[in-house]
Amino acid sequence: MLEGWKSEAVGNEKRGQQLSAGIGAGAGGVMAVVLKLLGGG
């Protein structure tokens, strides 16, 4: 029981890291486009 909970917790943690990394990359890309538009507009 405890072992299954541990592996699930680890899996959730990895998924959370991937999710936040993806969100960070997406936000960085959006910011770059906005800055380009503001700077070049």
Q: What topology does this entry show?
A:
Layout: H1 2-40
Give a written overview of the molecule.
This protein is mainly alpha-helical. The chain has one domain (1-41). Helices cover 95% and strands 0% of the residues. The chain is rod-shaped. The mean pLDDT is 89.
List keywords for this structure.
41 residues, mainly alpha, 0% strand, rod-shaped, membrane
Strand content: under 5%
Biggest β-sheet strands, sense, barrel: none
Percent helix, as a range, is over 70%
Beta strand count: 0
Any idea what the shape is? rod-shaped
Which series of helices and strands comes N to C? H
Mean pLDDT: 89
Number of helices: 1
Runs in which pLDDT lies below 50 for 5 or more consecutive residues are none
Rg for CA atoms: 18 Å
Distance between the termini: 59 Å
Overall tally of domains: 1
Which class best fits the helix and strand makeup? mainly alpha
Entry summary:
The chain crosses the membrane at residues 20-38. Keywords: Membrane, Transmembrane, Transmembrane helix. The protein is mainly alpha-helical and 41 residues long.
